[in-house]
Amino acid sequence: MCGILGVVARSPVNQLLYDGLLLLQHRGQDAAGIVTAERNRIHMHKAPGMVRDVFRTRNMRSLPGTMGIAHCRYPTAGSAFSSAEAQPFYVNSPFGIVLGHNGNLTNAEQLKDEMFRTDLRHINTGSDSEVLVNVLAHELEKASVRLHLDPQTIFAAVAATHRRLRGAYAVVAMIAGYGVLAFRDPFGIRPVVIGYNDTPHGTEYMVASESVAVDANGFRVLRDIGPGEAVFIDQAGRLHTQQCTPHASLNPCIFEYVYLARPDSVIDGASVYESRLNMGEKLAQKIKRSYRHLDVEVVIPIPDSGRPSALQLAAGLGVSYREGFVKNRYIGRTFIMPGQAVRSRSVRQKLNPMAMEFEGKNVMLVDDSIVRGTTSREIVQMARDSGARKVFFASAAPPVRFPNVYGIDMPTRAELIAASRSEEEVAREIGADALVYQDLEDLKDAVRQVNPRLSSFETSCFDGVYITGDITSDYLRDIEVRRDAKRDSAEDDNAQLDLNLAA
């Protein structure tokens, strides 16, 4: 769920990249980094923390150049605490390559072994993104003749990279002295969009995880990068594109529409906001069909991602919509915070109930989803403490029963409240009088109503169907073992070398 950004412009790009990262901050709060290129020289600054904390005026001044990439990190592989795993990653052979990655490689361990034994490359961290940049560098070296690069050579290297990688990945990379490269996995799981800006000096291009980073920076959205497609923008500002893998198919992660993306983004031709409105309508239809006995007096959203669904749900049921929680904007997204205790404490800090909207009422709380149940449990209790007579809970998404291995922090079933519980048991766990989940087909239809061309989605966390076809029970068991070992270990990755980190 990281945020990636790349720009080839006619003027300095450091401010554009910084502003773009601020717009993508919701996709990662663990670390941030910007790399720019001035002719053949690369300038980098990255560090753990939020964008506004990582970059100061002195850091921005040290990032000259009209081409660059940026990244904000949400850790799903490797360590959440290691400064060495802040992105972009850099390799100096061949050419000088920096890379930012959103997603998860499911064959990272196999690739690490290949890097060591066959490609003779050292991997310094536990990050699969460092594996990815080394795979790309190796394939560029193999594809190039006399260390010369042109678009066709680059696309050949990307095609070879696709053949080696498994999993979900949206990638932005910069090759010193050549340009900016972006590509997407053959299933199109993680999003990436390209935009342009016509200036008196020529066309500028931007690639980003979400369209909001393009729009808000004054660029116009050109289109989404297709599954298996590569886009290369050379230093002169010329755009080159090529489909780099046969049999590609578009299967966007449906959790982008449920929670991950900003509502003002458009992903693969479907408005996130409109999709969430439709989710609320579907929920209202389900309640009318199967939960008529619930005496709902007021619908209250859990801000912010629950608002569009709650609004349409209230309209569909013909009951009042009220804002019952005030959100502290200075607390980050609790879903992506490391550790159950931290998340639980932060929920109380982030949301404060207004008792007048709860006292003596039967309240329907609406959230985008229920994953671990931490947030839901705390919020239901807050509603009761504020005087609610009954508390019902509606989830705009189906039960999350299976691990997500494609770049969302849901790696083990033990952490998922619905993995081994019925809907009634989940309701008891979170303290609700009744619980209504969205049906999976209704969720898919909610997005398809916005863009009928989206025929298939990546929905593994709901149905356990892993679209890449390489996920076995042994693989999931291995993830759980490694997750537990990391949790129990007192080791803090301090043994890793902090290479390429600006002071």
Describe the structure.
The chain has 503 residues and is α+β, with helices and mostly antiparallel strands. It has helices at 14-23, 51-54, 57-61, 108-117, 128-143, 151-164, 211-215, 255-260, 272-290, 307-317, 340-350, 374-385, 423-430, 440-448, 460-463, 473-488, and strands at residues 3-8, 31-38, 41-48, 67-73, 89-91, 97-105, 167-175, 179-184, 193-199, 202-208, 220-224, 229-234, 239-243, 266-267, 270-271, 298-301, 320-321, 325-327, 351-353, 362-367, 390-395, 434-437. Helix 9 (272-290) packs parallel to helix 10 and helix 11 (340-350) runs parallel beside helix 12. It is globular. It starts with a strand and ends in a 15-residue tail after the last helix. Mean pLDDT is 91; it is low at 490-503.
| CATH structural class of the largest domain | Alpha Beta
- Kindly, what is the distance between the CA atoms of the first and last residues, rounded to a whole number of angstroms? 26 Å
The count of domains is 2
Outline, from the CA principal axes?
Answer: globular
Global mean pLDDT: 91
Largest sheet: 7 strands, antiparallel
Looking at CATH, the homologous superfamily of the largest domain is: Aminohydrolase, N-terminal nucleophile (Ntn) domain
Return the CATH topology of the largest domain: Glutamine Phosphoribosylpyrophosphate, subunit 1, domain 1
Portion in strands: 15-25%
Work out the number of β strands: 22
Give me the Rg, rounded: 23 Å
**What order do the strands of the largest sheet run in, or round the barrel if closed?**
3-2-4-1-10-9-11
Query: What is the annotated CATH architecture of the largest domain?
Result: 4-Layer Sandwich
